[in-house]
Design a protein that fits this description.
Blueprint (H helix, E strand, L loop, with lengths): L4 E7 L2 E9 L39 E6 L2 E5 L1 H7 L6 E9 L8 E9 L4 H14 L1 E9 L2 E10 L2 E7 L21 H13 L12 H14 L22 H34 L1
Helix pairs in contact: 3-5
Length: 280
């Protein structure tokens, strides 16, 4: 993937020439709005709330609404005045232990890749971050916007994650959560058993977007002039207002979980036996 930023990453007096490359890609189905009559794309015109328009871009200004219906207009000169200017460096300000950082702070990941001459200091910083289990905290300016960033070691890569500022987080005291004292020991024991029964290694490949797969199946069929029905998922049971017998639900869940595990075990044994017969 093409780089989105070029510059240097520095810690202390060490400077590493790097490029920033996306670590994720969007994988959703995009659609255009079309005029039903002849399938021409629909254009969006700019109208004021009073109905004036269509408006040219030079008739439109940016305003900050400081109270309902009251605005302060900012000009291009105002934005230039507030801008921090282009920056070609990321300075690591602090190294913080990973466990100290609330995961809500992390937002968008990028790979930092070294450019010519930066390979050795890159490998050195990567090893130091990995061995000390810390995150480098710094700032970067991209597209005239300043971002807080965290730099981690992931495999052979240094990963930069755009972070949220503290003012962007919603604190838990804004909501009501149940107290732990409401949980009975027997219920907790059975819930822990259920968790153990469902324990598995994380395999991201087994979790797929079934809705996207259905859409693409329908799209490909329509492209070839065929009619096809999507494999609609079973609708979830609607919650009822009845008092829930939590212990009964836990026992039922445990029984079902054991049954599935036993079935999967028998399937695995049959496959092993089949392979043994073929080998013989």
């Amino acid at each position: 993937m093409a780089s989105v930023w070029k510059g240097s990453l520095s810690f202390g007096l060490v400077s590493i020439p790097v490029e920033l490359r996306p670590a994720v890609r969007k994988d959703h189905v995009s659609f255009r709005l079309l005029y039903r009559k002849d399938l021409t794309p629909v254009k969006y015109e700019r109208f004021s709330a009073k109905g004036d328009g269509p408006l040219a871009w030079n008739d439109i200004v940016k305003g900050y609404e400081y109270q309902k219906g009251e605005f302060v207009v900012l000009t291009d000169e105002d934005f230039r005045e507030a801008a921090l200017g282009k920056s070609s460096s990321i300075e690591i300000l602090d190294f913080v232990e990973q466990d100290e950082i609330d995961p809500r702070y992390f937002e968008t990941p990028y790979y930092l890749t070294p450019t010519k001459g930066g390979e050795k200091p890159y490998a050195l910083l990567r090893a130091a971050i990995r061995n000390t289990k810390v995150v480098g905290i710094g700032k970067i300016v991209m597209r005239n916007t300043q971002h807080l960033v965290g730099i981690k070691a992931t495999g052979e890569a240094l990963m930069l994650e755009i972070m949220r500022f503290a003012s962007e987080l919603v604190e838990t005291d804004e909501f009501n959560f149940p107290k732990g004292s409401d949980v009975r020991p027997q219920e907790l024991h059975m819930a822990e058993q259920l968790v153990h029964n469902l324990a598995a290694e994380f395999d991201p490949e087994k979790y797929t977007d079934e809705y996207r797969a259905n859409l693409m199946k329908l799209i490909r069929a329509k492209m070839s002039g065929k009619k096809v029905r999507g494999s609609r998922a079973t609708e979830s049971a609607q919650p009822d207002d009845k008092v829930v017998d939590l212990m009964a639900r836990l026992r039922q869940s445990l029984a079902e979980g054991k049954g599935k595990k036993a079935a999967s075990g028998r399937g695995a044994r049959k496959k092993t036996a089949g392979r043994a017969k073929k080998t013989a």
